[in-house]
Amino acid sequence: MKYYNLKDKTEVVDFKTATIKGQGKEKGLFFPEFIPQFDEDFIENLHQYPDEEIAFQCMKDFVEDEIPSDILKQIVSETINFEIPLKKIHEKIYSLELFHGPTLAFKDVGARFMSRCLSYFLKDEDKKVTVLVATSGDTGGAVANGFYKTENINVVILYPKNRVSEVQEKQLTALSENISALEVDGSFDDCQRLVKQAFSDEEINSKLFLTSANSINVARWLPQQIYYLLALKQWKKLEKENPVICVPSGNFGNICAGILAHFRRLPAEHFIAACNKNDVVPQYLKTQKLESKETVATLSNAMDVGNPSNFVRILELFKNQFEDLKSKISGYSINDEKTIQTIKEVYEKYNYLLEPHSAVAYNALQQYLSENPGKKGIILGTAHPVKFPDAVEKAIHITIDFPESLENLMKKEKKSTEKQADFAELKRFLLYKN
Ligand SMILES: *Cc1c(COP(=O)(O)O)cnc(C)c1O
């Protein structure tokens, strides 16, 4: 499979190069040259395939012989070596629980796949790579965990000071070794801007080999399709009609992977982009104008994104046909008050505990289902409630216990370096301290 740069279609690279480079010229995102179709038979009989085989079928056309089949099989098995259950909340809404991985967030899937591919591609090269990543919360932990102690790879994570939860902060600051966490006095957008600037800085790039681990990297973005297939596998045993799939969205990598799988024949009735007050895409769906905005801080902080990078990939999938896109995707913007109210209601009525991101999705799906009676759907549960205890406790006044795996982590010391949202400071750190 070849990948072209969405900003300059003459730049065409293979999977290895796309994985190592992260992004192309002019900060353009890579996009597959064609959309490989699943066999109809495979989709029809999904429930008969083991999860690992589904994951392999999902990824093989994007990797081809750049990684030998037996190694790719092992990589995808390790990528999904935790349970991803589809739980029924009530008659019409199910939750795909993507938070049983090592950092309790769906980002574990992409981070695990990418770190393993990158380490495969680097093993015979005399090259040290620096993975540079901005996080609004969960990316940092998943990437730190995925790359922890990986040879030839250093990880530098930028996160916005005071805007991530205690658990999230520990997950990205307590590991050290080859992981450095920079605590930036600014927003996620500031962090992302600094990272993008570093990628286009000549001096840095002449001295270091930088790559990204945000969902702009194809090796992090593409494997997210896997769990949409695993969701359908479970759904088919329970329901007849195709599901409406509702994805809590920030940078739009996750939902874009689901839509890509749909373009490859994965059955889905409709997609919903559930956003918090950062509503660039819901606004676009109303006005056809894509205008990035200042980020607003919300309870669902992993979705506090004012300039969703992956949306260009969705536009490309729909060949920029607004009406087609609008007939397949609806957008909702849910504020913090409704988020809290939703956590409370769902807990009291159905004894199911949501966290702020999945609550945004639940509320959006509920609205859509009330406007479209007769349909049923799935929300993507993107994080464990324990990662967002403040919001959850505010809603239902219970304290959530840390799972055992977290208790040890919480006892570890936070190790971070404070930084102004200033490029010169980041540059100095990358060149001399990393
Ligand atoms: C990252 C994240 C999101 C947003 O995912 P995108 O792919 O950026 O749209 C939603 N929920 C949680 C918990 C996250 O960590």
Notable characteristics:
20 helices; six-stranded mixed sheet; 14 strands; globular; five-stranded parallel sheet; alpha/beta; Rossmann fold; about 425 residues; binds pyridoxal-5'-phosphate
Strand coverage percent: 15-25%
Low-confidence stretches: none
At the fold tier of CATH, the topology name of one domain is Rossmann fold
Helix content: 40-55%
The CATH first-level class of one domain comes to Alpha Beta
EC number: 4.2.3.1
Pfam families: PALP, Thr_synth_N
Catalytic activity: O-phospho-L-homoserine + H2O = L-threonine + phosphate
Cofactor: pyridoxal 5'-phosphate
Describe, in short, the structure shown.
The protein has helices at about 15-20, 40-45, 50-65, 70-80, 105-120, 140-145, 165-175, 190-200, 200-205, 220, 225-235, 255-265, 280-285, 310-315, 320-330, 335-350, 355-370, 390-395, 405-410, 425-434, and strands at about 1-5, 10-15, 30, 85-90, 95, 130-135, 155-160, 180-185, 210, 245-250, 270-275, 330-335, 375-380, 415-420. The chain is an alpha/beta fold and about 425 residues long. A six-stranded mixed β-sheet has the order 4-5-13-10-11-12, with helices on both faces.
Provide a descriptive summary of the structure in words.
Belongs to the threonine synthase family. The chain is of the alpha/beta class. The chain has a domain at about 85-105 and about 220-395: Rossmann fold, CATH 3.40.50.1100. The protein contains 20 helices and 14 strands. The protein has helices at about 15-20, 40-45, 50-65, 70-80, 105-120, 140-145, 165-175, 190-200, 200-205, 220, 225-235, 255-265, 280-285, 310-315, 320-330, 335-350, 355-370, 390-395, 405-410, 425-434, and strands spanning about 1-5, 10-15, 30, 85-90, 95, 130-135, 155-160, 180-185, 210, 245-250, 270-275, 330-335, 375-380, 415-420. The strands form three sheets. A six-stranded mixed β-sheet has the order 4-5-13-10-11-12, sandwiched between helices. A five-stranded parallel β-sheet has the order 9-6-7-8-14, sandwiched between helices. Helix 3 crosses helix 4 (about 70-80), helix 16 crosses helix 17 and helix 16 packs across helix 18. The chain starts with a strand and ends with a helix. About 50% of the residues are buried. The model has no long low-confidence stretch (mean pLDDT about 95). Bound molecules: pyridoxal-5'-phosphate (PLP). Pyridoxal-5'-phosphate binds near residues 138 and 357.
